[in-house]
């Protein structure tokens, strides 16, 4: 948890240090850099240090490549940096942090939605579609 | 059981490799530059030759011969809740600069929620992506497939293929071992031992042939080129590796040297006795005529 006492990093005036994703790449081709930056900076602006990268599109072998500099990550977390929610979820998937509760909740919601779509079949789907197109 | 890295074995293999300076420092394809000429005295020329021999020794250090690596299948966590959320797997690589590549953490989160350690092929690929090594490609070239190796071997380019293989694969990967064994088999089948003679692959080839007892062709080749010392060291190595065979016991009892050792070996162990006897006869006749004249 963030507390005003853990101001070991006096480098940022006002804001606090976050570890988040900075978006780069080209049109229809995103690429994220995992970055430690001042929270009040632009998303893609000047950062303190790059701690890794994430390629959201699967490669020829069907894998999404993620690189994490765990040693520097531990250093910034030890100095009192915060994590953004996507960063926490990614580290939960990696096994560095415990699995994020929202990941579990999202998975269960998705499963319930898929079950609802499969089970009733065609009839309630027509019934729910008509008022949708009427309004 | 004697290993490839034993001192005695290494010295014998190194002696057999030979030191042909003209072949080791053969011109490699580089940028076109006019040749440089230097004027030297006898002493300076000796000094330059000595330094060249030192550099050649460094170039002839043998690459390691290891057993095939065990496949990794270690599951770190199983989270059934994540099943069906993702479509592709995530490969997480630890990018800490100061850890050796063997100890790096590379884990894979599958779409069914299982968090497992990455297999050796995935490890090699990821390490090449993030820490590229010169001469190595992320996806191994098509050259190393079995059907294409045959074409290259017909062009007598075993040495180039083996150098590329050393640059591309780890010494204990199954691909490295497969390519090397194919190369050695092909050389042994056609008797092209001289292709590897002054290179760093010769020791590995001799070790392979000794372990499978296919040394006859090599022995004939050595006798035909009047390399009797190499032939004797080959047979001594054979005795070191297979001490329970008959010729080893006879050699130890009689403490035989040189041509006698070869004759004992030929009588007991070899398959192609006739050829080796012929070659030995030809060699002895040549020695007799040269000493007479």
Automatic annotation (TrEMBL), chain A:
What keywords sit in the KW lines? Mitochondrion, Ribonucleoprotein, Ribosomal protein
Q: Where is this region: Disordered?
A: 106-135
- Coiled coil ranges (UniProt) are none
**Single annotated GO MF:** structural constituent of ribosome
Task: Give the CC-aspect GO terms.
Answer: mitochondrial inner membrane; mitochondrial small ribosomal subunit
Under the heading InterPro entries, the entry gives: Ribosomal_bS16, Ribosomal_bS16_dom_sf
**Keyword Signal found:** no
Subcellular location(s) per record: Mitochondrion
List, in alphabetical order, the GO biological process terms annotated in this UniProt record. mitochondrial translation
Q: Which Pfam families match?
A: Ribosomal_S16
Q: Please indicate if the UniProt record lists ATP-binding as a keyword.
A: no
The family classification in the record reads: Belongs to the bacterial ribosomal protein bS16 family.
Q: Which PANTHER family match?
A: 30S RIBOSOMAL PROTEIN S16, SMALL RIBOSOMAL SUBUNIT PROTEIN BS16M
Q: What is this protein called?
A: Small ribosomal subunit protein bS16m
Q: Write down the species.
A: Menura novaehollandiae
Q: Which gene encodes it?
A: Mrps16
TrEMBL record, chain B:
MF term (GO), any:
structural constituent of ribosome
In its UniProt entry, what is this protein called?
RT22 protein
PANTHER family documented for this protein: MITOCHONDRIAL 28S RIBOSOMAL PROTEIN S22 (PTHR13071), SMALL RIBOSOMAL SUBUNIT PROTEIN MS22 (PTHR13071:SF4)
What is the native source organism of this protein?
Answer: Menura novaehollandiae
A cellular-component GO term for this protein: mitochondrial small ribosomal subunit
**Highest taxon in the source lineage:** Eukaryota
């Amino acid at each position: 948890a963030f507390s005003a006492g853990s101001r070991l990093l006096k480098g940022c005036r006002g804001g606090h240090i976050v570890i988040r994703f900075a978006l780069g790449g080209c049109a229809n081709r995103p690429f994220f850099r995992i970055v430690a930056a001042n929270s009040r900076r632009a998303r893609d602006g000047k950062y303190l240090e790059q701690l890794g990268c994430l390629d959201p599109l699967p490669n020829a072998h069907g894998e999404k490549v993620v690189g994490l500099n765990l040693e520097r990550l531990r250093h910034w977390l030890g100095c009192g940096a915060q994590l953004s929610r996507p960063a926490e979820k990614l580290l939960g998937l990696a096994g560095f942090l415990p699995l994020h509760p929202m990941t579990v909740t999202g998975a269960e919601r998705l499963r319930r939605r898929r079950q609802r779509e499969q089970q009733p079949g065609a009839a309630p789907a027509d019934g729910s579609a008509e008022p949708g197109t009427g309004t | 059981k004697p290993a490839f890295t034993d001192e005695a074995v290494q010295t014998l293999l190194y002696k057999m490799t030979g030191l042909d300076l003209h072949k080791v420092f053969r011109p490699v394809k580089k940028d076109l530059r006019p040749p440089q000429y230097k004027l030297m005295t006898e002493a300076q020329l000796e000094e330059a030759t000595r330094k060249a021999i030192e550099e050649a020794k460094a170039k002839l250090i043998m690459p390691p011969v290891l057993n095939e690596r065990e496949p990794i299948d270690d599951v770190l966590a199983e989270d059934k809740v994540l099943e069906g959320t993702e479509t592709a797997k995530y490969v997480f690589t630890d990018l800490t600069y100061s850890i050796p590549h063997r100890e790096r953490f590379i884990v894979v989160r599958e779409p069914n929620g299982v968090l497992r350690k990455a297999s050796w092929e995935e490890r090699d690929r990821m390490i090449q992506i993030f820490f590229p090594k010169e001469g190595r490609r992320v996806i191994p070239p098509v050259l190393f497939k079995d059907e294409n190796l045959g074409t290259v071997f017909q062009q007598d380019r075993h040495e180039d293929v083996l150098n590329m293989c050393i640059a591309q694969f780890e010494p204990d990967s199954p691909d490295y071992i497969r390519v090397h064994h194919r190369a050695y088999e092909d050389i042994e089948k056609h008797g092209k031992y001289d292709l590897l003679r002054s290179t760093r692959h010769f020791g590995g080839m001799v070790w392979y042939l000794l372990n499978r007892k296919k040394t006859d062709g090599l022995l004939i080749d050595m006798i035909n080129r009047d390399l009797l010392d190499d032939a004797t060291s080959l047979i001594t190595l054979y005795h070191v590796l297979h001490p329970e065979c008959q010729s080893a016991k006879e050699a130890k009892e009689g403490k035989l040297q040189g041509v006698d050792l070869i004759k004992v070996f030929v009588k007991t162990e070899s398959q192609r006795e006739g050829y080796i006897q012929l070659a030995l006869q030809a060699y002895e006749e040549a020695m007799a005529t040269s000493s007479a004249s």
